[in-house]
Design brief:
- It is built from 22 helices and 14 strands.
- The chain is of the alpha/beta class.
Length: 512
């Protein structure tokens, strides 16, 4: 039986942690060590927009210790990830370079959607409990140092996910000057977050019943741990309220003793407890579940899945698709047109695999682009492409990186706009030449598929796509007049041929 020793390193806002895991098909994920060091990177990042030399030196020393521990365990592989505390700094690249030079570790900076997706995967690693809970309305509330992520599930599908910049450390830093001027600091925190939460409720919780809430975050695990061996904890709304009343009645010193935490960390506990309390009140959740897992568990789960050590029973790709569908629904996109264009685009993609050289992930990006290509009509009928681009760039889709979202947004923008040269395109964009080429391929397929239902009447009952030498033959079975589609198809075929050196041709099987 193959056992892989894996190290998952999480560089967070208020601590750096490393979990050493053993991964195997028989035993799944087994934690064998957990090393943590408290360091408030977020304090500098959220207040000054950069991390000072003294704190960076401390971080490098900690990571050097981590590398020595990894050698002691003879780890087979590792993944080191940083989140918002480094992501939001002005000197991000310099920090990453110094870490690599000093420690040899290559640190990956996660976008918020990637970070939350991995956290969500850690929860899903407890498959039996997770699959059972999300059958009914469920909210996953992930409270970090920089922000909160709220993801809603219903009937085993991800309905929506939204990020609020109200993390525990960010709140503390914003209110640092107020804290010593009031004896009701908890009320000030609650007042600060109430407006955001009420706006969230109005936009996402209207007519939605939430039965369960899954709470993710270090401090809630400390607060509700009932015994040393407990990991998964379930309790009622009333039990949480009792805990909250007990905690806020204590002094910071008493709270630190009660939770078994360093006194320096207590200033982060109160914002977390208030955020959870308010969300429980706004959603009306009856049952609360604390899985006791964090980003490091998600990194290990994701690695094991990618290395095919085991396969999840939950379809994470479907979560990304469902989130995009709900996003399109929010902007009143034509569902029937979506379905027809999606079928055509994916059929063309599948028939041309040996020509375009793209894989499974690129197929998913094409699918998301199809689902969202018309959402800009909600804002403007004259500038649909640009508005669609802005909507996609402004909306996080859990499971997609910022780079992937930018690729999708540009494929949509160039669906109707003239394709720009790389020199024009690269101005103000972080994407490289390979990304530019990928966008051109996705856009070419989207253009052709979209042109075949330009009237939004779904005239084609049956479509057969065949690749013959230098032609992509699209045979449609319909008695409808397709003069419009043939004309637009011919126009879009020129760009398609430029990209793939294949000429798409449309033929009608049954004449009027």
């Amino acid at each position: 039986m193959q056992i892989i020793t894996f190290a998952a390193i999480d560089i967070g806002s208020y601590e750096v942690g490393m979990k050493i895991m053993e991964l195997s098909q028989k035993n799944g994920i087994k934690q064998i060590d957990y090393v943590r060091h408290g360091i408030e990177l977020g304090r500098d990042a959220y207040r000054y927009g950069k991390i000072g030399n003294e704190m960076l030196e401390e971080l490098c020393l900690v990571l050097e210790d981590f590398t020595r521990i990894m050698k002691g365990y003879q780890v087979d592989d590792y993944r080191a990830c940083a989140t918002s505390a480094i992501r939001e700094t002005k000197n991000c690249l310099l920090i990453l370079d110094k870490i690599q030079v000093r420690t040899g570790l290559v640190v990956e900076v996660l976008s918020n959607s990637e970070q939350r997706f991995l956290g969500y995967k850690s929860i899903a690693s407890n498959e039996e409990s997770f699959q059972k809970i999300i059958q009914k309305g469920t909210a996953i509330v992930d409270v970090g140092g920089g922000s909160i992520q709220i993801s809603l599930f219903d009937k085993d599908a991800l309905v929506s996910t939204e990020n609020l910049r109200l993390g525990t450390m960010r709140i503390r830093e914003r209110l640092s000057e107020v804290r010593n001027r009031t004896t009701h600091f908890g009320d000030v925190i609650e007042e600060m977050i109430n407006n955001e939460l009420k706006s969230y409720k109005r936009l996402y919780l209207k007519d939605r019943e939430i039965k369960h809430m899954i709470l993710v975050g270090d401090y809630i695990s400390h607060a509700m741990k009932r015994d040393a061996e407990s990991r998964n904890i379930s309790f009622s709304r009333e039990e949480y309220h009792q805990l909250y009343q007990e905690m806020i009645s204590r002094t910071p010193q008493e709270m630190a003793q009660r939770l078994g935490l360093e006194s320096d960390n207590i200033s982060l506990v109160m914002p977390a407890l208030i955020i959870y309390k308010r969300l429980i009140e706004e959603t009306g959740a009856e049952t609360i579940w604390i899985p006791g897992l964090n980003l490091s568990d998600g990194l290990a789960y994701d690695y094991a899945e990618r290395m095919k050590i085991f396969k999840s029973s939950h379809n994470f790709e479907n979560d990304i698709v469902e989130a995009a569908k709900n996003m399109a629904k929010r902007y009143h996109s034509d569902k029937t047109h979506q379905a027809g264009t999606e079928y055509l685009a994916l059929t063309i993609f599948d028939k041309m695999k040996r020509i375009h050289g793209m894989g499974k992930r690129e197929r998913l990006l094409l699918r998301i682009a199809v689902l969202l290509h018309d959402c800009g009509k909600y804002i403007s009928l004259n500038h649909t492409a640009e508005c669609s681009y802005q909507i996609v760039m402004s909306t996080e889709i859990i499971g997609l990186s910022h780079r992937e979202r930018e690729i999708i947004a540009n494929a949509i923008r160039f669906n109707t706009k003239e394709f720009a040269s790389f020199e024009e395109f690269s101005v103000g964009s972080s994407l490289d030449r390979n990304d530019y080429l990928l966008i051109s391929k996705l856009s070419a397929i989207l253009r052709v598929a979209n042109s075949m239902d330009r009237s939004h009447k779904q005239k084609f009952k049956k479509v057969r796509v065949t690749l013959k030498e230098r032609e992509l033959l699209v045979v449609v079975d319909t008695v409808e007049d397709i003069t419009l589609e043939q004309g637009l198809f011919s126009h879009m075929a020129e760009f398609f041929e430029t990209i793939f050196s294949i000429r798409p041709v449309i033929r009608q099987k049954r004449q009027v």
